[in-house]
Amino acid sequence: MVEQDIPAKAVMSCVFLCSIPCYLQYQMVELEIFRVNQSVIWNGKQTDKQRRNETIMPGYILHLTAAQMVLKTQKGQEFFKTKQDKNDFLIGNLLPDTTKIKARSHFRDPKYHDRMIEYPETSWFIKKYKHLLSNSSVVGYLFHLYIDRRFFKYYMPRIVEFRNAQDEREERRDMVKDALLKRTGQRLSKQDFFSEKYYYGDYTKMNMYLVNRYQIPTTLDPNISNPGIKEVDYEDVKQVLKELKTYMKVPKDAVKNVRVFDVEDLLFFLENAVGVFKI
Question: H or E stretch including 187?
């Protein structure tokens, strides 16, 4: 049973199929991951107001963490054989966030644009670009969408619940007043939740811990050719790589001060998501 209608013929051996809901014990998979608006992790240059006007997403480093998990699996090593393959796969994981038009680059369904939580329709990407799925950067792009989808559809509801002025559960962005942290029971205003104090700040605090734990390459070659992806300009990834350096200026022990995420639980979620991928 597959959550989305991704034709098996379209994926072949080079695509990850996404599994049914939950992140454990799946045999058939589809593909997804996460981040926060303009940069998978909110960079310090954006104001809280700007961030609130964007769609929430996971950070660059978190996407690279999940991608690095894939590369360390036996199947990942077999599929991405060369150094160039690995580089291109990692670059592909950054591509959907290189544009300001996130709804287009993330293949989101327009009917859900008014919701707090949106996630990619990975089957749309596969349908459009199945002929390019032998390219490592394209598989990386798809993997990014897979993680975004999986994170927001299955993990986000586990850590936060959005409430309206009547203290009812709410999904519509304009009607949300508060955020209830399930980890602590703390209730925050929407503005405080989506700030450097909490959600966005946690991404920053995790950066160096993740880079060191998963040996994430801090230098990647952005000079790869676009095989035909129309939603992004491959050249724009160069700016993302420059921004990445600014995200790694926090001490390793900053991870001890996260306020929204349970780091080990988050990594367990990602590792299990990676574990059900079929290349």
Answer: strand 187-189
Alpha carbon distance 136, 132 (integer Å):
9
pLDDT tens column, 119-162: 999 999 999 999 999 999 999 999 999 999 999 999 999 999 99
Residue 185 backbone class (left: φ over 0; alpha: ψ -120 to 50; beta: rest): left
Mean pLDDT, to the nearest integer, of 207-213? Answer: 95
> Above 70 in pLDDT, residue 10?
no
Coil/strand/helix, residue 181: strand
* Average pLDDT value for residue range 214-224: 94
Report the interhelical angle of 136-150 vs 263-275 (nearest 10°): 130
CA distance 175 to 218: 40
- Distance of alpha carbon 143 from alpha carbon 33, whole angstroms: 7
Q: What are the strands of the beta sheet with 160-163, ordered from one edge? A: 160-163, 178-181, 187-189
State the DSSP H helix or E strand holding residue 136, giving kind and residue range, or none if neither: helix 136-150
150: Cα within 13 Å, side-chain hemisphere: 31
Cα–Cα separations (whole angstroms), residue 137 to 4, 213, 259, 268: 22, 24, 34, 25
167 vs 147: CA distance, rounded Å: 30
Residue 229's SS3 state is coil
Residue 82 has pLDDT above 60, yes or no: yes
Q: Which residues contact 9 (CB under 8 A, 6 or more apart)?
A: none
